[in-house]
Design brief:
Elements lengths: L8 E2 H8 L3 H9 L7 E2 L6 E3 L4 H12 L4 H8 L3 H32 L7 E5 L2 E10 L4 H12 L9 E5 L7 E8 L5 E3 L2 E9 L5 H15 L3 E9 L12 E8 L4
Antiparallel strand pairs: 1-3, 2-3, 4-9, 5-7, 5-8, 6-7, 6-10, 9-11, 10-11
Helix pairs in contact: 4-5
Pfam families: GyrI-like, MerR
InterPro entries: AraC_E-bd, DNA-bd_dom_put_sf, GyrI-like, MerR-type_HTH_dom, MerR_fam, Reg_factor_effector_dom_sf
Protein name: MerR family transcriptional regulator
Length: about 260
């Protein structure tokens, strides 16, 4: 039995020291994240050593930044730098996604939902090389960039670069980018497509995708994925507001 002494703080005092609630400390104990130094076997009352405050403060700080509890546990186990860097990268990606969302909202607030001229076109089948990268909705730009980088050795100034994105966004999916080549090892199917040209930054392409999908609703057609983005401009030499991208969605019920 460990006697209560000045070296042990009752849970209430320790909670105030660490800016946590008693309920939180009990929860972290139950999870095995921060066990008390001693628990009174008769009353079940928890006591902590002052030296445990550093770990408790770290837990509170990381949780306030929405760092998941499993990551917090690994930080406390000693792999601090790698885990904190990974948590930082996730937060940065989330901030970037939210900033893109804010810019889209600002445009909608200023201009309303944009109107797009949608036409029905027939596309031939194409021989292509394909790069694919796992992604989430927040990491689409990075995944697309990684695909393009892998295709650079196969590209020429005349190359047709096409991004392929799922029609129904799930938590995880594959982003694909293709480049047309006579000796390509993949076949990109042809068919009838609803098509519209997006002018502006890539991050605003979802507005045009929604415009094309609205066309499907207006005309009673059924869309079939993936969504195609045909990149018509060179982002290295074209200002973002002047980038042109053809958005195409296959018409499933068209002959």
């Amino acid at each position: 039995m460990v006697p209560v002494s000045k070296d042990l703080l009752p849970i209430g005092r320790f909670a105030r020291l660490c800016r946590l609630s008693v309920k939180q400390l009990r929860h972290y104990d139950d999870l095995g994240l921060l066990a008390p130094a001693w628990t009174d076997p008769a009353s079940g009352y928890r006591y902590y050593r002052p030296a445990q405050a550093r770990d408790a403060l770290m837990i509170g700080l990381l949780r306030a930044m929405d760092v998941p509890l499993p990551v917090v546990a690994r930080v406390l186990s000693g792999d601090e730098r790698a885990e904190l860097k990974a948590a930082r990268d996730r937060i940065e990606a989330d901030v970037a996604r939210r900033q893109r969302g804010l810019r889209l909202l600002d445009r909608v607030l200023a201009e309303g939902l944009p109107e797009h001229e949608v036409s029905l076109v027939r596309e031939p089948a194409r021989r292509v090389f394909t790069a694919r990268e796992p992604a989430t909705p927040a990491t689409i730009p990075d995944a697309t960039g990684a695909c393009v980088a892998r295709l650079l050795p196969r590209m020429s100034p005349e190359s047709l670069l096409i991004g392929l994105f799922p029609l129904d966004m799930e938590e995880e999916f594959d982003v694909r980018v293709t480049v047309e080549a006579a000796d390509g090892d993949d076949l990109l199917p042809g068919g009838a497509f609803a098509s519209a040209v997006h002018v502006g930054p890539y991050e605003e392409i979802p507005l045009t995708v929604h415009g094309v999908l609205a066309w499907f609703g207006d005309h009673g057609h059924t869309p079939a994925g993936p969504v195609r983005e045909v990149y018509l401009s060179d982002p290295a030499t074209t200002p973002p507001e002047r980038l042109e991208t053809r958005v195409q969605i296959r018409v499933e019920d068209s002959q």
